[in-house]
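Section: Multi-chain targets

For targets with more than one molecule, the full set of components is provided together so that the structure can be written out for the assembly as a whole rather than chain by chain. Components appear in the order listed by the source. The example entry contains two components.
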Amino acid sequence: MSQVLVATHNAKKLTELRRILVAEISGVEVLGLDDVAPYDEPPEVENTFEGNALIKARAAVAATSMPSLADDSGICVDALNSMPGVLSARWSGTPRDDARNNELLLAQLADIPDERRHAEFRCAVAFVTPDGDEFIEIGVVRGTILLAGRGSNGFGYDPLFRADGQTYSNAELSADDKDRISHRGRALRDMVPTVAKALRRR
Amino acid sequence: MSQVLVATHNAKKLTELRRILVAEISGVEVLGLDDVAPYDEPPEVENTFEGNALIKARAAVAATSMPSLADDSGICVDALNSMPGVLSARWSGTPRDDARNNELLLAQLADIPDERRHAEFRCAVAFVTPDGDEFIEIGVVRGTILLAGRGSNGFGYDPLFRADGQTYSNAELSADDKDRISHRGRALRDMVPTVAKALRRR
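Its structure, encoded as tokens over all components, is:
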């Protein structure tokens, strides 16, 4: 059994990443930060998703000596000059309050007409090995910010986002359908061969 | 006595614009929207300060046939990709709630270190005459977002903004000192000769 650590306390994000990894890498065991001894997690001070994902994955390896994955992701709204971006999780000023973040984003876009509500979800996945090898993959999905939230699956801004070519919001999609099109699914699947190879070597 | 209409209901903004105009144009009488018959004000849907200032000034002329000035302004924070920008007044989702807007901006920048807290106030002043002549002036002042609000003068994000070269926040400055350096003071003073000339013609 090969273990990989996903450097997150976010249960829903862990579920999503584990689901994709388990489907792609036979015999992998995916741990989250709540499964390992606590350590000091560094603040995510970088202004890029890649930078913050690397910070988290490096800290996880340093603390646990396990091969570690970290995701940093967010929603980039064209009419907000690509913000909330790296500040997505704390957009309303309160960390990880999805309801308040969604409410604030809708209010900020209240006067923005449909044709200017384009946005994209971006995800950077960093993978760092105990040997110090570092890898980054980026996943992007373009779409539109809806006029009101729809659906209760997923997390974050999923209820507000309808991917281009889709009829439903991300929060109305099944887990499988979301993973197939999502920024996180794309980035993580691109990383899978690298993770699988590193785990085989151990 | 020559009259000019300033297309705002914001009493503090009107005070500031009137103060500058009266100091520069002898005999001018400055009215605000609360001094004229109500009319349907168009939504500020443009994504530039110039565009929104023009919308407001044109609507004022159409409704009153008076020479009309309008200001659209906001704070552009580097770490937020120049947002709140045109959404400054409604950044927290509630129109013109300065306290909530300031609180939200501080919370969004909570993890941003001093050296990345650069920002600028931008102001576009539009002047439209009953003959249909249209003029735009832009004023900019660069500065830093403080770690906490300071002072009680001014309005909007003044407590959070310290202009480059200044010791005090905009809300700690006297009216005269603020007008001398502010984005609004700069834009409006550049517009003064145009307004004075148009008023002399009437």
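The domain at 2-200 of chain A is CATH 3.90.950.10 (Maf protein).
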